[in-house]
Amino acid sequence: MSKREAAMSGPKVSALDGEILRNAFHKAVLEEQLPQDRWHDYASQMIRDYTGVKVVDAELLDWITRKWPAPS
């Protein structure tokens, strides 16, 4: 079984959980002024803490760390 298959067979993140993680990540980036080069590591750890899985789904990670429009 590949790492990707193992990750996909683990606990699924619901749409609501994904939104919670993404909003928490965006808030952390702003509050802690995280540089963009640390986003993937920070979000990966956040996902692992929230889900309890060791291997983070790459698509979820990319979606959470995707740039968003800055508030005007």
| Radius of gyration over C-alpha positions, nearest whole angstrom | 13 Å
Largest β sheet strand count, sense and barrel closure? none
Secondary structure: helix percent: 55-70%
| Overall domain count | 1
Return residue spans where pLDDT drops below 50 for at least 5 consecutive residues: 1-9
Number of helices: 4
**H/E element string?**
HHHH
Tell the overall outline: globular
Structural class: mainly alpha
How would you characterize the overall build of this protein?
It is globular, with a radius of gyration of 13 Å. The termini are far apart. The protein has 72 residues and is mainly alpha-helical. It is built from four helices and no strands. It has one domain (3-65).
List keywords for this structure.
64% helix, disordered N terminus, 4 helices, 72 residues, mainly alpha, single chain
Outline:
The protein is mostly helical and 72 residues long. It has helices at residues 3-9, 15-32, 39-51, 58-65.
